[in-house]
Design goal:
alpha+beta, 6 helices, 6 strands, globular
Length: 182
């Protein structure tokens, strides 16, 4: 993380007076965080756009940023995020610009700090859990089969469109499927 240390304001650390109002999904998230240290929320691909997945609870349990992935099968992203979560649980630190091996098809993934202006668009359940954004979020970017990331000029157009560039402010992001909802 960058800047001030994360001060957890989640629903486990603070009673906001609405615990009895939690729906089934919120209770599932809370249970997973308590039992495993984090939860992975999966948003399936639909007519609006590609699927994505993100963690909730890594910041609470380990004081590290939450993680988000886009554009692959949500179950595969779930496993990849769990792999990174297990690295964190074993003591690995996560930071903007890091590469991590052993996560995606033998190729490294790169972590990029998400701009908080994207949070309401993509991370609603995490905001509900932490209550006080900005919470730290790192985008886990995966390369194409040639090892190129989606922001690189030589990557294929389909790969470039498969993932957003959340480190850019929404107003500077290339127009496409990821900006359609803005």
């Amino acid at each position: 993380m960058t800047g001030d240390p994360f001060q957890c304001r989640c629903v486990l650390c603070h009673d906001y007076g609405d615990r009895d109002d939690a729906d089934h999904v919120d209770r599932t998230i809370i249970g997973h965080v308590q039992e495993h240290g984090w939860h992975v929320t999966m948003v399936y691909e639909d007519e609006i756009g590609p699927g994505f997945a993100y963690t909730i609870g890594l910041a609470h349990t380990h004081g590290t940023p939450e993680l988000a992935m886009f554009g692959l099968d949500v179950h595969l992203m779930h496993r990849m995020l769990d792999t990174l979560g297990e690295k964190v649980a074993a003591g690995a630190a996560l930071a903007d610009g890091q590469e991590h091996d052993g996560v995606a098809r033998g190729l490294p993934v790169t972590l990029r700090q998400a701009d908080p202006r994207w949070y309401r668009t993509f991370f609603g359940r995490a905001i509900g859990f932490y209550r006080r954004p900005p919470l730290p979020v790192l985008q886990v970017a995966w390369p194409d089969t040639n090892g190129r990331f989606h922001w690189e000029d030589r990557s294929e157009p389909a790969h470039r469109n498969s993932q957003p560039q959340l480190w850019l402010p929404p107003s500077e992001h290339p127009v496409g499927v990821w900006t359609a909802e803005l």
